[in-house]
C-alpha cells in the first residue's frame, strides 16, 4: 500500500503545483484587465479547496479509498478551461452603401470602429458602450461618470511633459521630401510669399506708370491700403471662396483665434431696449403662449434658440417659468431630454402636474416615486441628479438642458453644496438654465459657472415687478381702530416717513389711553393669545370688507400658525356654493385613505377650517392636507392661509394680500429680523398678475411699531448674496476617488468658494515672470557680497516682524494711547531717514489710520522733491543714528500725514505742542504770498525741541517696548519682539552692508522671484482652503479601511458610495453585523435615528459606533467634537416607527408622541429611502439575508396615509 501510494502523492503534488502556477498566471492576467484589480473574496483558497475536496464525502469517500484515488488520477487535464474569458469587442463593423438619389441599398462596406473597448467601467467618454437597461436611469455605483465639462484642460506640468515629448520630432529640418517611387517631391523651404493685388502689380511696372494720372494714383494708393490683402493661391476657386465669405464669418471666427485673451464668461443682456425683430429671428417658435412675452423673456428665448446657457434673475411671479417651458419644448422638438431640478420634493410634485398638463411627456423622480422615467422631460430633486451624474446614468447622453429652479437655494448651509457638485459634474454637451430670485451678484456667480464650464453664460436680470407692491403698517386691534393702516412704502419704492410716524402716534395714543385707565404696561415683543385674536379678527374683517382676500399670513412658528387659525372659530369667509365645492373636493381627495385615517384629529380640524375658508400650511401638516390646501388656495377657495416661510418657496401661488405676523424669526441659533432676501421672497406672493393693480403687504404692529431703521433695511435693503456653501462630504470623496481620471482637488478648485482663483491669468503672468527671471543678470555673490542672499532674507523677515508688531500696537488700546498728540516718533520712508517727528493729529479712520506729524528735515526736502535716500536698502534697520539737518535752522521742518509703516519707532519722549496753531501756520506758509514769512512761535518751539532731542542722543532715542511699556502680553507679540531683537543684532554681522549698490540688484531679482513663487503657490493645490480638511477626511477613511494608503477605494468604501447621508455610521453598522440579528421592524425603528431631528434617550449600539467615528474624526483633526457627532442622531420616533412597522393604525401611533403628524410622515418617508440604501449596500457585501430583511421592513412601513400618492401626480 505504501509503495503504491508514494508515486501518486509526488505526481499529485507536481500536478497540483502546475495547476496552481497556471491559475496564478491567469489570475494575474485578469487583474491587469480589470480597472480596479481583483474583486474581493470572502474565503481563502486553501479553506475552499479543503472544504470542497477533503471534507465532502461524495467527492472523497472515507471507506472506498481506492475508488477515490482512481477518481483523482483518471481526471483529464484541460488547461484551456482555465483560459476561458469573454471575447473582446469587434474592431470593425458593417456600413450600408446607398444610392444617393434613390436611397436604394447597393452594398455593405467594412469600417474600422474606434474605442470599442470603452465601457461604463473604464471610461468617462460619451463614446463608451451603453450599460445594461436596468442601469440606464439611475446608473450604478461601479460606473464611471461622464467627463465633466471644462475639465479637459491640461495642468502646467502636463503641458510641460507634452512639450518635452514633442521636441524629439523636428518638423522643419528632418522631413522626407520625395515619396517612394517618385522623382520629384515637395519643397518645404519657407519662401517669402508677397501678398499682392492687381493694383500693386500694375504700379510695379515702370513702363505703365505714365498711363495713370497722379490723382488716381493717390486714390488708388489709399484704396490699396484699405483693400483686403489676398493670399497667393494656385486656384481662383480658393480665392473666390475666401472672398465670398460674409463679413459676419470673420467676426465670428476672430475670437476663436485666442479665446483665452481677457475673456469674460458672463455676458449681461440688455433688456431695456425692446426686442422688435423677435418674430423675424424666431419665425417658428417651439412653444407659443396666449400672451405677449416681456422683453427679458424674449431675450432668454433668443439665447435658448442659439443653444446658449442663461441665468435669469427676476422677482417672484415675473414669469421665469416661461424660460423653462421653452427649453422643454425645444428639447421635445430636437428629440432630446431636459431635466428640471427643484430644491424641495413638494415643488417637484407641483411642477410635475403643471408641466404634465402643458407638455404631456413628463416624468417624475423623487426618493420614493418614479413616474414615466422614459419621458423627454424629467422633474427631480437636485440630490437625485447628483447621484445620476456620479453613477454615469445613460439619461445624461440625451440631455440637452438642465434647469435649476430657485438657484438662491445654493445659500442653504446643509444642501447648497449639492448645487455646486451638480454644476461642476455636468458634461460639456449639456446647456444650463438657472432661474433665481433677484440676487446682487448674479454676474459673479455666472462668471464662475462660465469659467469652470468654458462657455458663455448670458445673464438676464430684471428688477421690474409685473404687479407693484405697497407696504403698510397695521396698528388696529378693535372695530374702532380697524382702519389704522398706514402706507410705508409706495408702489414706486419710496419710503414714506410720514406713514411711519402716523403709525407710531396711533400706537402711542392708544398706549397712553390704556395707561390712564389701567396704569403703564411693560413693553414686550410677545403678545397674549387674546390680543393676537383681537388683531387678526379686526384685520381680516377689514380686508374682507375691502375685498382684499385671499390673504397669506406668514407666521414664523408652527404652533402660532395653528393657534391663530383655531382662534378664528367665529369667522366664516365662504359662501354656501364655495362650501359645497370645498366639501366635495376634500372628500374626493381623501377617498384613497383608509377609514380610520380619515378620522385623524388633524384632518377633522382642517376640514372644519377649510369649510370656513381658513387653512394652515407648515411642515407639521400631513402632506396630503398640504396639497389639498394648495389646490383649494390656487382655486381661490381658501381666503386666509396661515403659513410658515416654506410656502414662499413653493410654486407660483400669488395672493391679493400678504400679512406678516412678525418680522422676527428663529433661525436655529437665535431670534433675528428677516433678511431683505427673505422678506422680498415672501412679500412677492402679494399681487396676482392680470387681476390686481397692486399687491398689498401688511406688517402687524401688535406689541409696538418696529424700529424705522430695521424696516428700511428689510424692505429696501439688498437681497442676500449667492454664497458658496461648498464642503467636503465622505460620499463626494469616495465617488471621486473610485474614478482615476477625476480628483477631489479638481472639484475643490472648481467650487464657488475658490472663485477668486483666476488660474488662467496667473499662468500667463507666471510665464512672463519666468522670462523676466531668465533675462535678469546673474547675482554677484563673490567676496564681500557672499552673504547677500542671507542678508536679503533676514531684512525681509525683519520687515514682516516689524509690520506685525506695529499692527498689534495699533490694534491695542495702550498702543493708540501712546501714539497720541505730543508723542515723539522716529520716521523712516522714501523721504525721511531716521528723522524725529512729533504727532499733531490722529485720524478717526480705524482701518487706514493716519498721523499728522511735524518732522525735521533738510531745507528743500519738505515735499519730497529733494534727494531721496536709498530706502530699498533699509539702512535704518541697522543704523539707528538720528538725522540732524545742516545749519540747525528752525525752518528745517515739514508737516505731513504719516501711515503706520512710516513710524519705525515710538520713543519714550513727549512734547507739549499746540497742534492747531502749528498746522495752521504751516498751511499758511505754503501759500505763495506768505512763503517767505518766518515760522510761528508754536512751530519754532516744537522744531527746536526736536533738534535738541536729536543732538542730545545722536545714536538714537530709547523707544517704547511693546511688552514691558505697552503691556501687550499676547504670545505673538512677545515672540515677535524677541525675534525682532535677535534679527536686529544679527544685521550688524553682515559684510555686504558696506557695498553701496548691492541691495537694488538683489531686491529687483528677489521681488520678481517672490511674485513668481506666490503665483505658483496660488495655482497649486496647496493654496486650496479645504485641502487640510480633505487630508483629515482621507485619514479618517484610511483608518476605517474605506480606502487604502494609495487612495484606492476598498469594499467598505464601495458600500459607503451607495449611501447618501450618514454613510460612515451605516456602513460601520453593516460591517459590524449590528442589524442582522434584529427583526425587520426593529431595524426600521433603530434606523429612524438617522432621519429624525428631535431629542430623546439613545440606543447603545448605534451610539457606541457613532462615538467611535466621532473620536476618530477628532483625532484626525476635523473640528467637530465626538459629542456633536453623536448628538445628531435622535431616537425620539423609535417607538412610533416600531409600532407603525408592526401594523398599528396611524391614529394610534399619533397618540404615542407629541411630534406633529406631518413630521412623523416625513420621517417615515425618509426612513424608507435609508432602508433602500441599506438593502442595496447589504447586497454589495453579499449579505442577502439582511437585504431581504430591509426589503420586508420597507414594505412594512410603506402603507396607508404615510405613503398615499401625491394629488399632483394623479
UniProtKB/TrEMBL annotation:
Q: Where is this region: Disordered?
A: 122-144, 214-235
* Keyword field contains RNA-binding: yes
A Gene Ontology term for the protein's cellular component? Ski complex
**Family annotation (Pfam families):** DEAD, DSHCT, Helicase_C, MTR4_beta-barrel, Ski2_N
Q: Which UniProt keywords apply?
A: ATP-binding, Cytoplasm, Helicase, Hydrolase, Membrane, Nucleotide-binding, RNA-binding, Transmembrane, Transmembrane helix
Domain named Helicase C-terminal: residues: 572-737
Compartment annotation: Cytoplasm
Q: Where is the composition biased (Basic and acidic residues)?
A: 219-229
Reactions the enzyme catalyzes: ATP + H2O = ADP + phosphate + H(+)
- Extract the InterPro entries matched here: Beta-barrel_MTR4, DEAD/DEAH_box_helicase_dom, Helicase_ATP-bd, Helicase_C-like, P-loop_NTPase, RNA-DNA_Helicase, SKI2-like, Ski2/MTR4_C
| Residue ranges constituting the Helicase ATP-binding domain according to the UniProt record | 301-457
GO MF entries = ATP binding; hydrolase activity; RNA binding; RNA helicase activity
Say yes or no: keyword Nucleotide-binding present.
Answer: yes
Q: Which residues cross the membrane?
A: 16-34
GO biological process terms, alphabetically, are:
nuclear-transcribed mRNA catabolic process, 3'-5' exonucleolytic nonsense-mediated decay
Superkingdom assignment? Eukaryota
Q: What name appears for this protein in its UniProt entry?
A: SKI2 subunit of superkiller complex
Q: Which organism is it from?
A: Sparus aurata (Gilthead sea bream)
Amino acid at each position: 500500500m505504501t509503495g503504491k501510494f508514494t508515486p501518486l502523492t509526488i505526481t499529485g503534488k507536481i500536478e497540483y503545483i502546475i495547476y496552481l502556477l497556471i491559475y496564478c498566471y491567469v489570475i494575474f492576467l485578469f487583474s491587469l484587465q480589470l480597472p480596479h484589480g481583483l474583486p474581493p473574496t470572502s474565503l481563502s483558497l486553501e479553506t475552499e479547496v479543503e472544504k470542497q475536496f477533503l471534507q465532502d464525502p461524495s467527492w472523497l469517500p472515507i471507506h472506498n479509498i481506492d475508488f477515490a484515488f482512481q477518481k483523482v488520477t483518471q481526471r483529464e487535464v484541460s488547461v484551456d478551461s482555465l483560459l476561458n474569458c469573454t471575447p473582446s469587442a469587434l474592431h470593425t463593423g458593417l456600413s450600408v452603401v446607398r444610392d444617393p438619389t434613390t436611397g436604394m441599398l447597393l452594398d455593405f462596406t467594412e469600417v474600422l470602429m474606434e474605442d470599442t473597448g470603452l465601457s461604463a467601467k473604464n471610461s468617462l467618454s460619451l463614446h463608451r458602450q451603453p450599460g445594461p437597461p436596468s442601469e440606464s436611469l439611475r446608473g450604478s455605483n461601479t460606473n464611471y461618470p461622464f467627463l465633466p465639462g471644462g475639465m479637459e484642460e491640461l495642468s502646467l506640468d502636463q503641458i510641460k511633459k507634452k512639450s518635452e515629448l514633442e521636441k524629439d520630432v523636428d518638423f522643419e529640418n528632418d522631413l522626407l521630401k520625395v515619396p517612394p517611387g517618385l522623382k520629384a517631391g515637395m519643397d518645404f523651404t519657407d519662401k517669402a510669399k508677397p501678398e499682392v493685388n492687381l493694383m500693386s502689380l500694375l504700379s510695379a511696372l515702370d513702363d505703365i506708370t505714365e498711363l495713370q494720372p497722379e490723382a488716381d494714383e493717390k486714390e488708388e494708393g489709399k484704396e490699396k491700403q484699405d483693400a483686403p490683402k489676398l493670399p497667393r493661391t494656385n486656384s481662383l476657386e480658393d480665392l473666390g471662396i475666401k472672398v465670398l465669405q460674409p463679413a459676419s464669418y470673420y467676426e465670428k471666427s476672430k475670437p476663436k483665434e485666442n479665446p483665452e485673451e481677457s475673456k469674460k464668461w458672463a455676458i449681461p443682456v440688455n433688456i431695456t431696449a425692446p426686442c422688435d425683430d423677435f418674430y423675424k429671428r424666431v419665425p417658428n417658435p417651439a412653444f407659443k403662449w396666449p400672451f405677449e412675452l416681456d422683453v427679458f423673456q424674449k431675450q432668454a428665448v433668443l439665447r435658448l434658440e442659439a443653444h446658449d446657457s442663461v441665468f435669469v434673475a427676476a422677482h417672484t411671479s415675473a414669469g421665469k417659468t416661461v424660460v423653462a417651458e421653452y427649453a422643454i419644448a425645444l428639447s421635445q422638438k430636437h428629440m432630446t431630454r431636459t431635466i428640471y431640478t427643484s430644491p424641495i420634493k413638494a415643488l417637484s410634485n407641483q411642477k410635475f402636474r403643471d408641466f404634465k398638463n402643458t407638455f404631456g411627456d413628463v416624468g417624475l423622480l423623487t426618493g420614493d416615486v418614479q413616474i414615466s422615467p422614459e419621458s423627454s422631460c424629467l422633474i427631480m430633486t437636485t440630490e437625485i441628479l447628483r447621484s445620476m451624474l456620479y453613477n454615469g446614468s445613460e439619461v445624461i447622453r440625451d440631455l440637452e438642458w438642465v434647469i435649476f429652479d430657485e438657484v438662491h437655494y445654493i445659500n442653504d448651509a446643509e444642501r447648497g453644496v449639492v448645487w455646486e457638485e451638480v454644476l461642476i459634474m455636468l458634461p460639456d454637451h449639456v446647456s444650463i438654465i438657472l432661474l433665481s430670485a433677484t440676487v446682487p451678484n448674479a454676474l459673479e456667480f455666472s462668471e464662475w459657472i462660465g469659467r469652470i464650464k468654458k462657455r458663455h453664460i448670458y445673464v438676464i436680470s430684471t428688477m421690474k415687478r409685473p404687479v407693484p407692491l405697497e407696504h403698510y403698517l397695521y396698528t388696529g386691534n378693535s372695530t374702532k381702530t380697524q382702519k389704522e393702516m398706514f402706507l410705508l412704502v409706495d408702489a414706486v419704492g419710496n419710503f414714506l416717513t410720514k406713514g411711519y410716524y402716523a403709525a407710531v402716534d396711533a400706537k402711542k395714543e392708544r398706549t397712553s389711553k390704556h395707561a390712564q385707565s389701567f396704569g403703564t404696561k411693560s413693553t414686550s415683543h410677545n403678545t397674549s393669545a387674546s390680543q393676537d385674536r383681537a388683531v387678526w379678527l379686526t384685520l381680516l374683517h377689514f380686508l374682507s370688507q375691502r375685498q382684499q382676500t385671499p390673504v397669506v399670513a406668514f407666521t414664523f412658528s408652527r404652533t402660532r400658525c395653528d393657534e391663530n387659525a383655531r382662534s378664528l372659530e367665529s369667522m366664516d369667509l365662504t359662501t354656501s356654493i364655495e362650501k359645497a365645492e370645498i366639501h366635495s373636493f376634500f372628500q374626493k381627495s381623501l377617498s384613497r385613505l383608509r377609514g380610520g385615517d380619515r378620522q385623524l384629529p388633524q384632518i377633522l380640524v382642517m376640514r372644519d377650517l377649510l369649510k370656513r375658508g381658513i387653512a394652515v400650511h407648515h411642515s407639521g401638516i400631513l402632506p396630503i392636507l398640504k396639497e389639498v390646501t394648495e389646490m383649494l388656495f390656487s382655486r381661490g377657495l381658501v381666503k386666509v392661509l396661515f403659513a410658515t416661510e416654506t410656502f414662499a418657496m413653493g410654486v407660483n401661488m400669488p395672493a391679493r394680500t400678504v400679512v406678516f405676523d412678525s418680522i422676527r424669526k428663529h433661525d436655529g441659533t437665535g431670534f433675528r429680523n428677516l433678511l431683505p432676501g427673505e422678506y422680498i421672497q415672501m412679500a412677492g406672493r402679494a399681487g396676482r398678475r392680470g387681476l390686481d393693480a397692486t399687491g398689498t403687504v401688511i406688517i402687524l404692529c401688535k406689541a409696538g411699531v418696529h424700529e424705522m431703521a430695521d424696516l428700511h433695511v428689510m424692505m429696501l435693503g439688498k437681497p442676500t448674496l449667492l454664497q458658496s456653501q461648498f464642503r467636503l462630504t465622505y460620499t463626494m470623496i469616495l465617488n471621486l476617488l473610485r474614478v482615476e481620471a477625476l480628483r477631489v482637488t479638481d472639484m475643490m478648485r472648481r467650487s464657488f468658494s475658490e472663485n477668486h482663483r483666476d488660474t488662467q491669468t496667473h499662468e500667463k503672468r507666471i510665464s512672463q515672470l519666468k522670462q523676466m527671471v531668465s533675462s535678469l543678470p546673474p547675482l554677484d555673490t563673490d567676496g564681500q557680497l557672499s552673504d547677500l542672499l542671507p542678508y536679503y532674507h533676514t531684512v525681509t523677515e525683519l520687515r514682516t516682524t516689524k509690520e506685525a508688531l506695529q499692527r498689534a500696537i495699533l490694534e491695542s488700546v495702550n498702543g493708540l494711547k501712546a501714539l497720541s498728540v505730543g508723542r515723539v516718533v522716529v520716521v523712516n520712508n522714501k523721504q525721511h531717514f531716521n528723522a524725529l517727528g512729533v504727532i499733531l493729529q490722529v485720524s478717526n479712520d480705524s482701518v487706514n489710520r493716519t498721523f499728522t506729524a511735524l518732522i525735521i528735515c533738510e531745507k528743500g526736502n519738505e515735499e519730497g522733491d529733494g534727494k531721496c535716500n536709498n530706502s530699498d536698502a533699509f539702512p535704518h534697520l541697522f543704523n539707528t543714528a538720528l538725522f540732524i539737518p545742516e545749519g540747525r535752522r528752525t525752518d528745517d521742518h515739514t508737516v505731513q500725514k504719516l501711515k503706520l509703516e512710516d513710524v519705525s519707532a515710538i520713543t519714550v519722549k513727549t512734547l507739549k505742542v499746540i497742534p492747531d496753531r502749528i498746522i495752521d501756520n504751516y498751511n499758511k506758509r505754503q501759500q505763495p504770498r506768505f512763503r517767505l514769512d518766518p515760522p510761528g512761535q508754536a512751530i519754532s518751539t516744537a522744531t527746536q525741541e526736536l533738534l535738541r532731542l536729536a543732538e542730545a542722543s545722536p545714536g538714537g532715542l530709547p523707544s517704547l517696548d511693546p511688552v514691558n511699556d505697552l503691556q501687550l502680553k499676547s504670545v505673538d507679540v512677545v515672540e515677535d519682539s524677541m525675534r525682532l531683537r535677535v534679527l536686529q543684532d544679527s544685521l550688524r554681522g553682515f559684510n555686504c552692508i558696506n557695498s553701496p549698490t548691492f541691495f537694488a540688484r538683489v531686491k529687483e531679482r528677489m521681488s520678481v522671484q517672490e511674485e513668481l513663487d506666490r503665483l505658483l503657490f496660488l495655482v497649486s493645490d496647496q493654496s486650496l482652503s479645504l485641502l487640510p480638511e480633505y487630508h483629515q477626511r482621507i485619514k479618517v477613511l484610511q483608518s476605517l479601511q474605506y480606502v487604502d494608503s494609495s487612495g484606492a477605494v476598498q469594499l467598505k468604501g464601495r458600500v459607503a458610495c451607495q449611501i447618501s447621508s450618514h454613510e460612515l455610521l451605516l456602513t460601520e453598522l453593516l460591517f459590524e453585523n449590528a442589524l442582522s440579528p434584529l427583526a425587520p421592524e426593529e431595524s426600521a425603528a433603530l434606523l429612524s435615528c438617522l432621519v429624525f431631528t428631535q431629542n430623546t434617550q439613545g440606543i447603545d449600539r448605534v451610539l457606541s459606533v457613532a462615538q467611535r467615528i466621532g473620536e476618530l474624526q477628532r483625532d484626525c483633526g476635523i473640528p467637530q467634537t465626538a459629542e456633536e457627532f453623536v448628538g445628531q442622531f435622535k431616537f425620539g420616533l423609535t417607538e412610533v416607527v416600531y409600532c407603525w412597522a408592526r401594523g398599528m393604525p396611524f391614529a394610534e401611533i399619533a397618540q404615542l408622541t407629541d411630534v406633529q403628524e406631518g413630521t412623523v410622515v416625513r420621517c417615515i418617508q425618509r426612513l424608507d429611502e435609508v432602508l433602500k440604501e441599506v438593502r442595496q449596500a447589504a447586497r454589495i457585501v453579499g449579505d442577502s439575508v439582511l437585504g431581504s430583511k430591509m426589503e420586508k421592513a420597507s414594505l412594512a412601513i410603506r402603507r396607508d396615509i404615510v405613503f398615499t400618492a401625491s394629488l399632483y401626480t394623479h
